Amino acid sequence: MPSINMKVQRSMAKITLQSVPDQPGIAAEVFSALGEQGINAELLSSIATGKGRGDISFAVLEEELGRVAPQLEALKSKIGARRTVTDTSVALISLYGERLYSDPGFSSRIFKSLALEGINLQMISQSVSALSFLVDRSKLDQAAATLQGTGDIEG
Q: Is domain 12-89 given the CATH code 3.30.70.260 in the classification?
C-alpha cells in the first residue's frame, strides 16, 4: 500500500476575523489584501455565526504576522469585522500522498490515533491528496511521533 509523507511547520499563527458580515466579497477583500503583500494563507475556514455575520479563520507563518497584523487592522473597519484574534501557539502538520484517496478509512484512523493521545485538531483541511491540520505547538512532537507510530506515515 502506498505510504503517506508528512511535512511539519512548527511556527504558525492562527488568525480569526470575528463577526464579519456574511456577504459576497468579504473573503476576496481579506485574501486579496494578504496576497498583495505576498502572504500565503493556509487552512482557510469560514463559519456563519448567525444574524448575518460569520468568522473567517486562516493560518500564516508566524514570521509573517508582523506584516499581516497591520493589513488586517486596516481591513477590519473596511469590511466591518468586530475583532481580530491571533494565536501563535500552533503548528501545522500536512500529510500527502495517493493513499489519502485510495484508503477511505485513513483520515479517521489518523484522527483517532491523535485523539487517543489527547491531541486536539484546531483546524482541518483535506483535499484528494493532502490532509492538513493545526495542533497546539506544545503537542507537535507528540503528534508527529504518534503519526509515525501508526506505520502509515513517512518523514
A: yes
